[in-house]
Design a protein that fits this description.
With about 400 residues, the protein is α+β, with helices and mostly antiparallel strands. It contains 14 helices and twelve strands. The two termini are about 25 Å apart. GO terms for molecular function: transmembrane transporter activity.
Length: about 400
Amino acid sequence: MSITQAFLEALESLNANKMRSALTILGIVIGVAAVIAMLAVGQGAQDTITGSISGIGSNLLFVFSGNFQEEVRNVQELTLDDAEALSDVFQAPHVQSVAPVINSDLEITFAGESTRAEVNGVTPVFAEVRNYTISEGEFINQDHLLGQASVALIGVEVADNLFDRREAITGETIRIEGQPFRVIGVLEPKGGSSFGSQDNVVLVPFTTAQSRLIRRSRERVDVIYVQATSADTVKLATDEIAQILRSRHRIFLGPDDFTIFSQQDFVETAETITGVFTIFLGGVAGISLLVGGIGIMNIMLVSVTERTREIGLRKALGARKADILIQFLTESSLLSLFGGLIGIGLGWLLSFTVGQIAAANDTPINPAIGLNAVLLATLFSTAVGLFFGIYPANRAANLEPVEALRHE
C-alpha cells in the first residue's frame, strides 16, 4: 500500500466518523494551544523586558537605603554626601555618573484636571543617568538648582491626563500640591520599568523638591542612581559602591545597611517568574497531550474492533501486515496532526487575547509566534499520534485472517 493510498483511506475513515474524530482530538488541541500560547507569551514578555532594559540602560544601578534581604539595626539613610563620594573617580573608577533623587507620589492639577504622579527631585545629570530625552523644551539645569526654581518636566502620561495632548505644553503652569510650577519640557515616552511607569512622572529641581514639596532631612535622599562606565563593568562598579558605602557607614562586620540593584537582578527575577509560568503551562500542555494521546489510542482500538472483518478480508485478499500497520498509523497521525493545526490557531487566538488584556492594563506584551514554535507543535502533535497509534495498529496488523472473518 502506498502512502498516498493510506492517506486517502485514512481521510475517508475519519470523515465517516466526524463527531468521534472531533472529540478524540480535543486533548491534542488543548495541549498544542497551551504550548503555542506559552511560547508566544513567553517570547513577548522577554521582548518587553529587553526593551525596558534598553530604555533604562543596561549599565544602570539602583542604590537604596536598608537591606532588602536581611534585618539590619541602626540603618543609616543615604545622603547627598554618599552620592558625592560615589562620584569620586579615584575610589570608583568604574562609575561614570551619579544622580541622587528624592521622590514622592503627589497630586498634580491643571485647569480643573487632576492626576497623581511620582514627583522626583533631580539634578541636571539625572537625564543622562536615567537615559531620559525630551520631546520639547529643556531639561533642568544648574541655574534652576541654585535658584530653587519652580519649574517642572512632565512625562507623556501626565501630559495626557492633564492636557489631553503631548505638544505645545511648554510654558503652561501646573500645580503640584497646590504650588504653581512652570512646565519647561515634556519627556519622550519610555514605557514601563521594574518600578512601574516611567511616563507618569514629574521632574523638578532637587533643591526645589527638598525645600517645598518633599519633606526630608537636609541631606537625605531616597535613591541614588549610578551609571557604570559600561554594561561590562557593572559588577566592578557594584563592588566599588559597596566598599565606599560600607566605609562611610562604618560597617566593618555584618550585613550592609543598603541595597544595590542592577538591571540584571530585575532580569533574573523576571526570568524566574516567566520560568514558573512556563513550567505551569508546560505541565498543562503535557497532561493535555497525554490525555489526547490516550484518547487517540482508545478510539483506534475501538476502530480496530469495529473493522475486524474488514481487516480479515483485506488480509485474505493479499494485504500485508505492513499495509494494515501503515493504514492505522496514518489514521492516528492524521488525527493528532489535525488537532495540532487547530491547536496552533487556538494558541494564536489565546496569545493575542493575552496581549490585548495586557495592553488594556498598561502592561504591553506583544506575543510573538515564531516559525519554530509552529513547526515544534506540528511535529510534536504528529509524534503523539504515531506513538499512541503503534499499539492499536500493531494489534490490527497481527489479526489472523480466518479469526477476523469469523468476527461478528
